[in-house]
Amino acid sequence: MKNKNFRRSLIDISVHAGTSVIGAVLIYFFYKNPFYILSFFIGSIFIDLDHFIDYFLYYGFRFNLRKFVGVEYLASGKVYMFIHSWEILIILLSVSLIFRLDYLFFFSIGMSIHLLIDTFHEIRPLFYSIFFRMHKKFNAHVLCPNSVARLSK
Ligand SMILES: [Zn+2]
What we know:
Layout: H1 5-31, H2 34-45, H3 50-59, H4 65-69, H5 86-98, H6 102-122, H7 130-135, H8 140-143, H9 145-152
Helix pairs in contact: 1-2, 1-6, 2-6, 5-6
The structure holds zinc ion.
Zinc ion (ZN) binds near residues 47, 48, 84 and 114.
C-alpha cells in the first residue's frame, strides 16, 4: 500500500468507534435513555460524512472506497470539511444548553469528543476552526501538509 493515509484513516475510524461505544455505555449507565445514546452516536460518527463532500467535490459521483479511505481527494489541493468545526460545535452546544435540548446536547458531546480525537490525530489545533481554514483558503498544502505528503510516500 503506497498511500499511508489509508492505514491512518483505519486507525482513526477504530478510535472513533471505540470511544463511541465507551460513551454509549456511560450514557446508558447514567441515563438509561436510548435516544440520548443515539444522539451521541450520530454526533460522534456521522460528522465524518463531511469527508464525502470533499470527496465528491473532487471525484464527482464515482465512488471508490480505497480512494475515499485513503483521503486521495486531498490531491485536489483543497480541504473543506465544513462540519469539522469548533465554531459550529460551540453554536450547537450553546443552543442545546440555552433551550435545554437534551438530544442536541448529547449530539454536541459526541461531536466534541470526535473533534478532540481528530485534533490529537492531526496535531494542528487550529485545523478544526472553519474560520482558520477559510482564512487559509482551504489550501490543503498549507493546512495539512503531512496528509498531502503521505499521499505520495
Ligand atoms: Zn473526523
